[in-house]
Amino acid sequence: MDLTKPLDQANAKEINAYCDEQGKSFSKDIKTNQIRNVFSKITSLRNIYKSKRKYDDELERALILLKPQLAYAAGRQEKVKIFQQEMNKIIDGVINSSNKNLAIENFFAIVEGFVAYHKFHGGKDK
Fold first, then answer.
1. Which of 18, 67, 1, 75 is nearest to 38 (CA)?
2. Distance in angstroms (rounded) separating the CA atoms of residues 13 and 52
């Protein structure tokens, strides 16, 4: 998937292929709980989005503030840096999108895909 373009321009086929590729890559070094920690924060973002039924400044602020949390995790574990870098790219993909509602939905789909394909490819549990 071309992460130089806004995330609202990604289609389902591209998202699936990207998630499979990244999930496989992450499964080699990243533990399930490291991905799940980020996923739980993103679930909170999803709940905000669902309750308001739209992307707004509060959601964008929370999305941007995921970056320092990811940096902290990457600082604690060198192997998490590749995950941090990919997450930063997709966060930026949302921010740079015209249709932010579609972009944030694609963002949520990508993160779910990361978790699913990480597990599928034998991601480490501990």
1. 67
2. 28
**pLDDT tens-digit readout, 61-75:** 999 999 999 999 899
Q: Identify the CA nearest to 114 among candidates 76, 70, 53.
A: 70
Mean pLDDT of 27-31: 86
Mean pLDDT of the chain: 90
User: Distance (Å, rounded) from C-alpha 121 to C-alpha 116?
Assistant: 9
- Residue entry with tokens 């130089």: 4
Residue 93: count of CB within 10 angstroms of its CB: 23
User: Contact at 8 Å (CB) between 3 and 21?
Assistant: no
Nearest to 64 by CA among 93, 33, 24: 93
